[in-house]
Here is the input.
Amino acid sequence: MPARSPAFPLPTVPLGGLLRACHPLPAAAVTVFAAVLAATAGRGPAGTALTAGAVAAGQLSVGWSNDRVDLRRDRAAGRRDKPLATGRVPAAAVTAAALTALALCVPLSLAAGPAAGAAHLAGVAAAWAYNLRLKGTAASWLPYALAFGLLPAFVTLGLPGAPWPPPWLTGAAALLGAGAHFANVLPDIADDLATGVRGLPQRLGARTSAALAALLVLGSAALLVLGPPGRVTPYGWTLLTLTGALLLATAGAPGRIPFLGVMAVAGGDVLLLLARGAGQAASL
Here is the structure.
């Protein structure tokens, strides 16, 4: 019996260029974060692998669709780091890859259960809405907050009894996502404005956006330290103080320093989110 052709057949393309077009570092980071959170929450090897597969497929679809939607703007800005903009990868191949990854994401997400699958697919839909429309609006921060905020729910809703994560955990993840959006845009604000992208960070400007990014990730850290029940440990207060000091020291600095400061704190928030999420899941 002849093998069926894939729903979205991929043209022959340089695999290295196709990989670079999917935003590999953010995609890998979010996938590893989700997998570790699933493992520490008690999803088991199969559940952890399923979580990682669903998140990886979703992230690949988002990354490829982002570069495909931004093709005209990336060419206008002369982005030599974008293989699609330089012609190393055909646009049709990136479109096919994005749709294939999205098609795989749906059954992988729903395999964790209807509630968990719906939570993850809502986050992926928010990310696609950012790529297709919201990136250039004042609501550009909203898809990031929604997608990040729903990630803990995707993990916990797949546990027996389908429990929702506590509000402080969801809020911390959402604030981290919104802060990541403002920080991620900082190095590219000038190019974005030149090509007509007017999301909220571009409208507010680099200085205000850097301050907002710092406040959002600081708010995320505060929720992770102060949100769980029980008394805050000296370690928690020390961590929160150091976080605030780092952000205060870098917020007004020139160049990429505010971006790097926010990213450093965001990385610490991710580790704390994993630790807090695991502890909370153990008590569900």
Summary: The chain has 13 helices and no strands. Residues 44-69 form the longest helix (26 residues). The radius of gyration is 19 Å. Residues 162 and 240 are 32 Å apart (CA to CA).
